Amino acid sequence: MYIYKFIYSSLLLVLFPFILIYSIFLSLKNNDFDYLKNRLGKITKLDGTNYLCIHCASLGEVNGAKELIKEIKKTNNVIISTNTYSGKIRASELFSDIKVIYFPLDYNFSISSWLKLSKIKSILIYETEIWPNFYKICGKKNIKLCIVNARIQKNLHQKKFIKKIYLEALENCEFIMCKSNYEKEKYLKLGIKEKSLLSVGNLKYSYAPFVIKDRDELNGGQVEEMHEETFSYFLMASTHNPDEMNFLQAIKELLDHGIGTVIAPRHIDRSKKIAKFFKDNGIETHFLSKDKNILGQWNNTGILILDTFGDLPKFYRNSKYVYVGGGYSQRGVQNIIEPSTYGKPIIVGPNIENFYEEIENLKQLKGITVIEHDKSITVQENITKNIRELHSLNNEALIKQGDIAKTYSLKFKNIVENYIKILKDKKIIN
User: Fold this and answer.
1) Helical (H) or strand (E) element with 35
2) Which residue among 101, 292, 378, 408 has its CA within the 20 to 30 Å range from the CA of 223?
3) Which fold has domain 219-410?
């Protein structure tokens, strides 16, 4: 085991100058020097004591943990940590009464300082962020550490170096709450003892659908002024490269039928590249950020790109069907639970690893369309064929498919309560 520790420590040492330069760059770029200070272990001393830290790596994890955090903060002194600027902004928007800080780099000096200044007594890691030195130091300091909604990379058990490092780190966890039996099996293959594992369910089932409360809540009330038949589009949510290229032919066919496309890239900084790609292919593009009244002018002509944070949920309600991105990338499919709560037909690509059990169950119920690999035709042709089949369905059939997914998601509406009960029983939270 010592050789693996030595390799990991050596890598950290070699990478430190580059990590430091990158951290300075991000601090300057976002005009947020807490990023540099927090990552190096320096945080503003907190007034309270016995803090429970809930760590959410980025914006997506903050959204996923939202309902859990709401419940936990009722009876616990909470702070939130994150790795990214977008994660911090989102956490601050949702929880203005909670201190949000950046997670430390995995160096002993930064971790020890960070833990001392933060006065943390226990930590919940949302999904899977495994930092060997951080976990080890928490173990030495008797800081309770638990992973919630846990998932882990497929075939990680076959990667000897990572397996050894992760196994030693995970020994410092009180227990691991997996989001599915499928994920639990992967932890077992890694070598984690079954007594440390619980299969509780996916916390993302706690998602509450966005509801428009007044006329000004979405683009100056333009949604309610538009006719329903005009405001019906194909929504591509959380797209990754090469989603847009793969769907080009299908998007063109939909435009020929008077159905525009709304694209919400997983990473907003891709927006301009996406717009250029479609313009080069003769398709008109619009940016939501450029004109808050764009929906009243868009009229399903071309493509609307959501290049703003937090607006995607507002577009589920009036979409005709939803493609959830990532299924054509190594990253894998993004969150399919969020659109399912709106009762919309969902389409995903072939890489369903991130939501494997959830999607497989929906497939059996015929509540989702998975575009499987078809070597006899190109990817674009395969996607277009599937979109064409979906488009040929009448409204009744589309509603039925959407309702299947919605009904399935609602079965898990008590998921947060289940997590809270276990965390209380295990003395992790008050």
Assistant:
1) helix 34-39
2) 408
3) Rossmann fold (3.40.50)
